[in-house]
Amino acid sequence: MNVDLFVENGWILTMDGGDRAWEKGGMAVRGEEIVAIGSMESLSHIRAEECINAAEAIVLPGFVNVHTHASMTLFRGLADDLPLMNWLENHIFPAEAKLTENLVGLGAELACLEMMASGTTTFCDMYLFENAVAEAANRAGMRAVVGEVLYDFPSPCYGPIEKGFAHVEKMIERWNSHPRITVALKPHSPYLCAPDLLQKAFQMARTHQLPFVIHLSETLAEKEKILAAYGKSPTAHLASLGVLSPQTLAAHCVVMDGEDIALLAETGTCVAHNPQSNMKLASGIAPVPAFLQAGIPVGLGTDGAASNNDLNMFSEMRTAALLHKVASGDPTVMDARTVLRMATIEGARCLGMDHKTGSLEVGKQADFILIRRNAPHMTPMYNPFSHVIYAAGRNDISDVFVAGRGVYRNRTFITLDAERICAGVREAARSFC
Ligand SMILES: CSC[C@H]1O[C@@H](n2cnc3c(O)ncnc32)[C@H](O)[C@@H]1O
Ligand SMILES: [Zn+2]
């Protein structure tokens, strides 16, 4: 069998339904797709243009970051140690008033550099001037689900909300047939979006079969606001509007009671868990073990770099694993395998992309990463799941492939000019302080 690329002798964790893994495994790629995977003995018939020696590496599907505001890398460290509303209203919104499409594109390029170098191959993003984010992701060679944020006040991008829907329609037309960029409908939250905006956005998502992504129940202040306005919890409010569904991805879901959890489960709604952002803004702890028990699909997200302050899925995974242990007093919750599934295949499921990415299987896109395992902090290795969650870090990533193309090889960026981008952001940052 002739192929373009053969990854040989790696410790392969497929993250597929059967959790198949090989200590000495191989994976063959032709074009964008995985065409064979298994033990090295089973792949002796493979003849490849290029071989990658993965003898000292763990081979994994690329991480799926299900909730980002990529261009907020521009505001990394601008305002720390504040609660959500104070942080947003007094620091972030004034800085965002100075944004242009070019600046959003630059911030997104910086985010792509950081995400690629830490093993993320797919991200789901909500922001202003989101076409610029889509273009940055495309230049980087990454996979992205992009969405212009919709809310009930004028946007610097499209103006009044009526124009927002026309803008999103144009985005859908523009990116519709792109192999790696998908558009989604992204109303900000129940507190910044009136019921008719939410229903119209959901209808559009339904018509085009696209994800519907929204911030939900992030803080107690949000819950009180929605209770006062509609007499329901934020989750019950969305349920009554008919916008909870398997297409719906709700970010945060921190302040949730048993009824809210039952509503998410009954409607098939997915959750984006952002533990570091929730901890930094002191929003609280999302009841993720209860979500999993109820059968709710949960993916992992970093949120923006202004509330985290990085886009590093390794630290997000380790935080998720540790936080829920200490919160529940039960060290068996959120074991390493469960957390790694959230960062890969479950994240892909939340984006409706599990037929394409999130696991290493024949017929899926070749979105994969190599984690080197020869450093002292990775030695010895009894269990690769344990090492990925509790020992490894982003500096252990050596190679990242998206759709069969190396976007980061031997710790070097292939698709973007890191020096130019970092210099551009340093210069741009002068106008925000
Ligand atoms: C999400 S893009 C639109 C808008 O949302 C702001 N934002 C960033 N992080 C959060 C968060 O955790 N909750 C709510 N809103 C957030 C962002 O700064 C943009 O203005
Ligand atoms: Zn967010």
TrEMBL record:
Residues where substrate binds: E96, H188, E218, D303
Record keywords, A-Z: Hydrolase, Metal-binding, Zinc
Residue stretches in coiled coil: none
InterPro entries: Amidohydro-rel, Deaminase_MtaD/DadD, Metal-dep_hydrolase_composite, Metal_Hydrolase, MTA/SAH_deaminase
Free-text function comment from the UniProt entry: Catalyzes the deamination of 5-methylthioadenosine and S-adenosyl-L-homocysteine into 5-methylthioinosine and S-inosyl-L-homocysteine, respectively. Is also able to deaminate adenosine.
Signal sequence residues: none
Cofactor(s) in the UniProt record: Zn(2+)
Cofactor detail note: Binds 1 zinc ion per subunit.
Domain Amidohydrolase-related: 58-405
Catalytic EC class: hydrolase
EC number(s) reported in the record: 3.5.4.28, 3.5.4.31
Cell wall biogenesis/degradation recorded as keyword: no
Protein's name in the database: 5-methylthioadenosine/S-adenosylhomocysteine deaminase
Family to which this protein belongs: Belongs to the metallo-dependent hydrolases superfamily. MTA/SAH deaminase family.
Binding site residues for Zn(2+): H67, H69, H215, D303
Catalytic reactions of this protein: S-adenosyl-L-homocysteine + H2O + H(+) = S-inosyl-L-homocysteine + NH4(+); S-methyl-5'-thioadenosine + H2O + H(+) = S-methyl-5'-thioinosine + NH4(+)
